[in-house]
Amino acid sequence: MRRAVVLGWSVVGLLAGAAPARAQLSFDARRMGMAGVSLSRDGALGRYNPAYGAVPQRPGRSAKLTIPIPLGLFQVLKDSTAFDFDSSYFNPIALANYILHPPIFLEIKKVPTPTNDVEFTIGRNALLVDLGSAAQLVPTDRFGFGGESRLMDLGATIKGVHFGAMVWEDHEIGFQLDSALLGFLRLQDSARTNTTYASDGDGIVQAGIAPTLGYAGRIWGDSTHGIYLGAAVHYYLGAAYGSVRGSAGITTGDTLFAGSNPVTPAIDGRVQYSKAGHKLGHGFGGDVGFVYVSGPVEVGVGVNDIGATLTWSDTRVDSVHFDTVANDIASSLIVNHVTTKTRLPVSYVANAALDLGTNTTVGAMVLNNGRGTSIQLGVEQRVGPLALRGGVARDQRKRVQVGWGTGVRFGPFGLDVGFATHSSSLSNARGITMATSISIY
Amino acid sequence: MRFTRLTWLTAAAGAAALALGCGEGHAIFDVDVLSFLGGQGNDTVPYTIPGNTSGTVDNPPVRVTLLKGLGNSTVDSVTLTVSADVENRTDSGNVQFLVFFSSDSAGLYSTTPYAQASVRVVGADTQPLAPAPIPLVADSIFGQDQIFVGIRVAVAVDPPAGPTMTGTLRLTAVRLRIVLQDHLFQ
Question: Cβ–Cβ of B11/A250 closer than 8 Å?
Fold first, then answer.
């Protein structure tokens, strides 16, 4: 069952990645080999810059379809450490890493997971925990993950006018430990009496569809020297959303392990939600983009989800707290059938590409999707049917990552392999992913 | 979900659960039992034994908090470190202390002692009792969230005897080192 969940999560991403141009997710080994840079004016750039809907594809460079080869799924099927809960070798870190880094492609160097003893020192008025090397897993600043995805974009484009509907989802979860809890878990501070140890957290999940009307076209010049503009208006319809914000922890008493004052859980939160089947959330938002092409030079800027605020007119708001009488978590209604608003994060992208004229193309991209900025630089060198690729990037965690790869063309088909380092796991160490894909030109 | 008194300890150790679940890691508990005994004034055991007899003095059972394993734990090993000073004031004889552990207080002193050591004292004399760390049977009671500990002093007075043999056994260290293999999801 657990393996099926992770595989399902991966297959959803895989199917979305195989969809044509406007879908967001791209599992293209060519991009992986250039640390995420896209040189082919494909769906990856079109997702963030609507002007690319009008920019002509590079002859012989832009694939009609890219199909990832999901070797990573076979690896997941064989991995027992993340799924055999009943075994002594079960590793929850490995399972968490699969969720944070969906295993579409093969992990040729897995992120090492800490394996060590954990030591507790206990006294009547003392509690100290030594997590060993596992202490590095305790985040010192806000830890979170999330993303906004356009899972599917169904529609048609006629003479630059695009109309259709996209399926979207947005999720974000984050928490931050307070200084007392950080000191206890990471710095081996002994627990103290009459002290609160807590974590602040928040999370939101929302999804729906968005009918879209857009336009992309060349406003000046010709196919070799031109300026392209694109814009789209989305009418977001939210099917459901839920959000939570608050803090949770404990407050110690006069004595840690004795005395008449028991430890008291400290929970204070607020939950807001609009269930599916209730009134839809709604709101407008838009994308704009600009691309300048002049011979070998290409520059683009795009902004997504501008003003994307959804209004939910049938929201329930509950408070969550610890009931000291019932000794249990309790919730109580604050207000029902009220109007609340949610927002989608605004994404910004700037990209550039330069064809050096020696079958060499260099590209760069800066992307801020509301959760941090990533910077990517990549280069592709073509030698006959062979392509050599490399790149370097700074990810959203401000860590340097490297990519390299190659590809070969067989007429209308291309087979590409790309390697990329990543830090999208519960560790400070890097893993290496090998991506493989087939492109149809 | 109802919260027991010790739930917060499990929550605080939740981060440790990740480490515990990482392959072959163990949970090691270093418990200062003496702090629990001393907090209730049970770190000393005075004795007054009539001459030419023997007798025992039992301290009231004291509850010691452990951290129960987060799943079905198995106890790999248990080591007890204990030391005491016998401060004899009058008469002479053999003073022995015995350490008992049990999961409940009612039958604590009817169980087999987990450790014992003895020393001979003569007159006004202070003698240390400091056996080497004692490996104990890896009893499952050490995988629970609490145990009860009892200290018994057994005195055998030498003949010919004075009127009474008096003194105090003062514990100076009682530590348990418990190594658990945690099975979080079994």
Answer: yes
Partners of residue A252 in chain B, C-beta under 8 Å: 8
- Please tell me the distance from the alpha carbon of residue A122 to that of residue B177, in angstroms, as a whole number: 10
* B54 occurs within a structural domain: yes
Task: Count A/B contacts: CB-CB distance under 8 Å.
Answer: 134
Task: Specify if B2 maps to a domain.
Answer: no
Tell me the DSSP string of A351-362. EEEEE-SSSEEE
pLDDT tens, chain B, 186 aa long: 444 444 444 444 454 444 444 445 688 889 999 998 887 778 899 999 988 788 999 999 998 888 765 556 788 889 999 999 999 999 999 999 999 999 888 989 998 999 899 999 998 999 998 888 888 877 888 888 888 999 999 999 888 767 889 999 999 999 999 888 765 443
Report yes or no on B48 lying in a domain: yes
User: Which residues lie closer than 8 Å to B183 by C-beta, 6 or more apart?
Assistant: A88, B69, B71, B72, B73, B74
Look-up of token digits 């708001």: A317
Q: Say if B160 falls within a structural domain.
A: yes
Question: Domains in chain B: how many in total?
Answer: 1
Query: Is A94 in contact with A75 (CB distance < 8 Å)?
Result: no
Q: Which residue has the tokens 């991403």?
A: A13
Q: Please, which residues have CB within 8 angstroms of residue B101's CB and are 6 or more apart in sequence?
A: B108, B111, B114, B139, B141, B142, B147, B148, B149, B150
Q: Give the integer Cα–Cα distance in Å for A261 and A277.
A: 46
Domain holding B64, by residue range, is: 7-181
CA atoms of B151 and B34, how far apart (whole Å): 11
Asked whether the beta carbons of B25 and B69 are under 8 A apart, the reply is no
Give the single-character DSSP code of B2: B
* Interacting residues of A180 by C-beta distance below 8 A, sequence separation 6+: A189, A192, A195, A196, A197, A198
For strands A106-109 and B27-32, give the pairing.
Answer: unpaired
Instruction: Report the amino acid identity of residue A261.
Output: N
Are A256 and A193 in contact by the 8 Å Cβ rule? The answer is: yes
> In this complex, which of B2, B9, B18 lies closest to A134 when CB atoms are compared?
B18
Joined tokens for residue A304: 């997504």
Best probe of the B interface among A257, A264, A320, by most B CBs < 10 A, is A257
- Do the Cβ atoms of B16 and A131 come within 8 Å? yes
Measure the CA–CA gap between A185 and A198, rounded to whole angstroms.
12
State both tokens at A2.
């657990």
Contacts of A343 (CB under 8 A, 6+ apart): A308, A309, A310
Residue B105 belongs to a domain with what CATH number?
A: 2.60.120
Closest-approach residue (CA) in chain A for B23? A89
CA distance A231 to A214: 6
- Please return the burial class of A59, using the count of CB atoms within 10 Å of its CB with bins 0-12, 13-18 and 19+: exposed
Cβ atoms of A29 and A437 within 8 Å: the answer is: yes
* Cβ-contact B20, B167 below 8 angstroms: no
Using an 8 Å Cβ cutoff, are A180 and A196 in contact? Answer: yes
Residue B70 to residue A403: CA distance in whole angstroms? 41
